[in-house]
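Quick one:
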Amino acid sequence: MLLSVRPVARVLSFLGSTLALSACEGALSIPNNEMTWGFIQTSALSAGGGTYTTSPSGQFFRGSLNSIPDARVKPDTCISLPNTAPGPLNVTYLDAGAAITAQFGSRTDTIPRVSSASRTSYEVSAPKSFQPGDSLIVKIPGAAGGFPASEIHAKTAEVLTIDSLSIKPQPAAAQLRWSQSTDANSSLLVEFRYSSSGGTTFNQLIRCAFTDDGVDSVAYDVLQPWIAANAASRNVTYTRLRTQINSIVGGFLEVISTFPVPTPSAP
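Output:
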């Protein structure tokens, strides 16, 4: 069932941010034609005391995308670009059934359909407890004329700990160390945001994608604009990205799991 056609700034509230993180690196290129897409997202929230929650969500649509996040694509490189939101895309939202289910470890959550004038999504009313690194099984009942019945198995992103970010004098590199992943289907995305005018609005960023093996570096000349900004005019964020991409008839179904640092607090 076709539900609506909308030009939206981020396509999906969660997909936009992860596409922005992975733009130009850490992404799987897709032919720019009309395809059927399903995205399931889960991102860790801190509940205090070393415990975590997440608000799993899903969205299904038909439209054109040039690329999708893929944690297996890790060229260990950085790019500089303006810190702007992705441009609008036209998509047709699809019905995937009255609810989908997400099984974290041994617990299964029902994620109901939520419709508005601007989009249709699948969202929980409150965050759910989980352990980062849990297995995840998502079942989609599907709907006639909408998204097909599907099932996808994935692993959620493990806890990420940043051990150090050491800036060395020119011409040495900035050295980065973190807790490495348990397998190859994970990458580390780092964004160095800064203000080119010395203010507190970050209008520039340097985006890097790394193999999730616990150690890497950024050349000094690449990071120099960020280093030159004063402390109030810059910040850095880290994201462990895990993806699982399955082919479906006429498109793709993907799980996007992230563990951000700093980790937002659960509401």
